[in-house]
Design goal:
The complex is a heterodimer. Chain A contains 11 helices and 11 strands. By secondary structure, chain A is of the alpha+beta class. In chain A, strand 9 and strand 10 form a beta hairpin. In chain A, helix 3 packs across helix 7 and helix 8 packs across helix 11. The longest helix of chain A is centred in the N-terminal third of the chain and has 14 residues. The two termini of chain A are 20 Å apart. The N terminus of chain A is likely disordered. By secondary structure, chain B is mainly alpha-helical. In chain B, helix 2 crosses helix 5 and helix 4 crosses helix 5. Chain B is globular, with a radius of gyration of 18 Å. The termini of chain B are far apart. Classes of the chains: A alpha+beta, B mainly alpha. At the A-B interface, helix 1, strand 7 and helix 10 of A face loops of B.
């Protein structure tokens, strides 16, 4: 990776561009001078084609990296704040808020993000945080479902993620979740669209390389929801998946589709060992 | 009678021109190489240069570094550097690689630029919506020839 970086520096210098935006791949991430984030870890056994896993944070420019090191500089934290208000707000026919059952999010939600997506025994399916939030809203609160990538939903996942920051991702892929995980793995290696690109082509075979002006990461999801500077908004994993598959000139899957839920579980499992970072900041 | 003969002559001429271009489905690969011009006409290296750097066309430099194109910003490093490509490959090989590199390099990441079907969930360009095959190829026959002509200028 180092070598490639040096090469790209050389190219850019040769090209004569001023101040190329390059990552400090050796930097360490500590948030608020307090929360230590694991951005490099040994790859889990089930990620057989990688030896080491990296948070997308290490591939970003020093400026972007810095934005995530202090919550006052992290625009994603505005979403967390907004979700705190929703957390306490009564909604729906049952006269309940999130807090009615779960009290303080900082305590009750600690560790939750690290194990999602997760098999739900009662429902007999793998559920993402979005699905669990909507189940609470409809079943317990008698409230309307939130849209998968609506602001209120993404903000709530940001709040739930934020209280687990620093904890290692540890999604389960055995037992009843296995079938969904296998399906996600198959999708990860399928070359979609007219460009015939699989997730693996860019994020497994070419992470660390430049593709035009973009520095390819491993496509890890431990930092989701992600505040993207490009869209100036918080983004769900499924919204990002949709963008990636669209960019292969393919027909995408829908947010919340069984395919994306399976891919969500599989990609999350590839990051087991990296810290929960959401809401993170990326380009 | 005369009029009819003239119409017939025109039709023959037009058909003749169409025959000169090889449709994507009709390209014959010999170990990944394509001997004949796909458009039936020679390529224009200057036009090929524009296809190489344009994001909306070939965007070849998204993945390949080319020193001679260093005035265009940001060259990728996913595929091999193309400096000296003309010393390493024949015209027929370069044409085959640009048209459909998978015919020469099994499993290569490089997209096929002159192919219309056989895709998984083919989409309508970058809309994310479904499209029905055959899709328009990523580059036209002439654009492929132009790129090949440009690549043939890359000598060390």
């Amino acid at each position: 990776m180092k070598n490639k970086m040096l090469r790209s520096v050389a190219v850019l210098v040769a090209v004569g561009l001023s101040a190329p935006v390059l990552a400090d791949e050796d930097a360490d991430l500590v948030i608020n001078e307090e929360i230590e984030i694991t951005v490099r870890a040994p790859a889990p056994d089930h990620t057989e084609n990688l030896s080491e896993i990296f948070s997308g944070w290490v591939f970003r420019s020093a400026e972007t990296q810095a934005m995530q090191m202090d919550d006052f500089d992290n625009p994603g934290m505005i979403g967390v704040e907004s979700a705190m208000a929703d957390w306490a707000a009564v909604d729906g026919s049952e006269g309940k808020s999130c807090a009615s059952c779960h009290e303080d999010a900082e305590t009750s939600m600690k560790g939750v993000r690290a194990v999602y997506p997760k098999w739900n025994e009662e429902a007999g399916e793998v559920r993402t945080l979005e699905m669990q939030i909507n189940d609470c809203r409809t079943t317990r609160m008698g409230a309307e479902e939130w849209k998968w990538s609506g602001d209120d939903m993404v903000d709530m996942t940001a709040l739930i993620s934020s209280v687990s920051r620093g904890m290692p991702m540890n999604v389960a892929i055995d037992g009843p979740a296995r079938e969904t995980w296998e399906k996600g793995k198959e999708i990860y290696y399928t070359r979609y669209g007219q460009l015939e690109l699989a997730c693996a082509n860019c994020h497994e075979d070419n992470y660390g390389n430049m593709i035009r002006a973009d520095h390819l990461s491993q496509g890890q999801t431990n930092g989701f929801p992600v505040y993207r500077l490009k869209t100036a908004s918080l983004n769900s994993t499924h919204k990002r998946f949709r963008g990636c598959i669209r960019d292969t000139r393919a027909e995408t899957f829908a947010e919340g589709s069984p395919e994306f839920i399976a891919l969500d579980l599989y990609v999350a499992s590839r990051g087991n060992g990296l810290s929960v970072e959401g809401p993170s900041v990326r380009n | 009678m005369k009029h009819r003969a003239l119409t017939l002559a025109c039709a023959v001429t037009l058909t003749g021109a169409a025959w000169a271009e090889t449709a994507p489905e009709a390209v014959s690969y010999d170990y990944g190489a394509v001997a004949e011009s796909l458009s039936g006409a020679p390529g224009d290296p200057e036009a090929g240069r524009a296809v190489m750097v344009s994001r909306g066309l070939g965007n070849c430099i998204a993945c390949h570094e080319v020193t001679a194109l260093s005035d265009a910003p940001f060259h990728g490093e996913v595929g091999p550097m193309l400096d000296g490509a003309a010393d390493r490959w024949t015209e027929a090989e370069l044409r085959g690689i640009v048209a459909n590199a998978k015919m020469m390099f099994d499993g290569t990441m490089m997209p096929a630029f002159y192919k219309t079907s056989g895709y998984i969930r083919p989409g309508d360009a970058f809309t994310g919506k479904a499209a029905t095959e055959p899709l328009p190829p990523l580059l036209t026959a002439q654009q492929i020839e132009d790129v090949v002509a440009y690549l043939l200028t890359l000598k060390e």
